[in-house]
C-alpha cells in the first residue's frame, strides 16, 4: 500500500501561492528583504536562491536512532521542506512551495567520539 507521503515524494514539489489569495498582491516581505541584502553585498547572490523563508521538518525519533550502534552509520529520515513568505500588503503568511524528500545524519559511535577528543 502506497502512503500519502510516498505519493507526494513521487509527485514532486507542490507549488503554492504566486499572488496573495487575500489581497491579490505580488509584493513579498522576505523576498524584498533578501533582494536588498544581495544588492548591498551583505549576502552573496547564491544564498537564498528562492528568496523565501524555509522551514525544514525532519521526521525522526532520536531516541530510537541512538539504540542502533553502528560506527559511522548514516541515518536517513523523511523530511518536508516548506518555503514561505509574507504578503507585504496584508501580512498574510504564504506557502510558496512544499518539497518532500530525505535527510540524513552521520552518527558516530561513542568509541570514535572518544578517540577524537
Tell me about this structure:
With 117 residues, the protein is α+β, with helices and mostly antiparallel strands. It is built from four helices and four strands. The protein has one domain (4-115). It has helices at residues 4-11, 29-39, 62-65, 110-115; strands at residues 14-15, 53-58, 73-86, 93-107. It has a four-stranded antiparallel sheet with strand order 1-4-3-2. The longest helix has 11 residues, at 29-39. The chain starts with a helix and ends with a helix.
Q: Top keywords for this entry?
A:
alpha+beta; disordered C terminus; 117 residues; globular; 4 strands; 4-stranded antiparallel beta sheet
How much helix, percentage-wise, in residues?
10-25%
Number of helices: 4
| Rounded radius of gyration (Å) | 19 Å
Give the helices and strands as they follow along the chain: HEHEHEEH
Side by side, the strands of the main sheet go: 1-4-3-2
Number of domains: 1
Relative strand content: 25-35%
Low-pLDDT segments: 112-117
Q: Care to give the gist of this entry?
A:
The protein has helices at residues 4-11, 29-39, 62-65, 110-115, and strands spanning 14-15, 53-58, 73-86, 93-107.
Q: Topology of this structure?
A:
Blueprint: H1 4-11, E1 14-15, H2 29-39, E2 53-58, H3 62-65, E3 73-86, E4 93-107, H4 110-115
Antiparallel strand pairs: 1-4, 2-3, 3-4
